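Listing S7. Sequence submitted for prediction.
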Amino acid sequence: MPKAVLFDLDGVFYQGETPVPGAAEVAAWCRQERIPHLYLTNTTSRSRADLAARLAAMGLPIEEARILTPAMVAVRWLQEQGIHDAALFVPRSTRDDFREISIASDDAESTGAVLVGDLGREWDFSTLNRAFRLLLTADPPPLIALGMTRYWHAADGLRLDVGPFVVALEYATDVRATILGKPAAPFFHAALQLAGSAPGETVMVGDDIRGDVEGAQKAGIQGILVRTGKFRPGDLQLDIRPDAVLGSVAEFPAWWAGSP
């Protein structure tokens, strides 16, 4: 029987600005049952504090301390590598999560690392080209991908996420990215450490068949797919086999109670 659970947020607990029916009750159930749990998100469009405030406004009282973002893992990685400055390609609000490091100015010609997150509509040619130029040097800095999510489900439909832009930079510069978000194993390992659980006693619940389910399974964690958010029926025709498929996160407590 699993002892801890990792939840995705966007597409699992909310869609756009609307909570998934029953999601708030699941969050409350986890707290009441004292189940070790964390919320893993590749969201880099806003800071962790802003995300917690947004969730609260939607009636989802999820504590900031239980939210794990790629920014948190990236700051720790930079410190471990002895890198003290970085060029950030993330929205301005997300920069609050990087206050422990020095941030390169927009006109800097070199940097200790290039960190790429979800800039959304702020991406344009000059911005992408600035990242390209910083990487195309004789001694290129590390390229850090804050997740490799391909797309996400916005209120107006599917939108490109960080992954395609990271791949474009890799292709143009021959610099391979270090991935510090889903689906990379180090992100799941960081979550396990915070949750105090082992892979074999942990389950991941998400709407992304690759980023959530396959990523978790490769890290030795059970992966449960929900039919909300970015889920598409074709996901079930891939060579990835979820450990369970639920209509929504609202069905998770019943699955937990019946797990062997």
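Caption to Listing S7: primary sequence and predicted structure tokens for the chain studied. DSSP finds eight helices and 15 strands in the chain. The mean pLDDT is 93.
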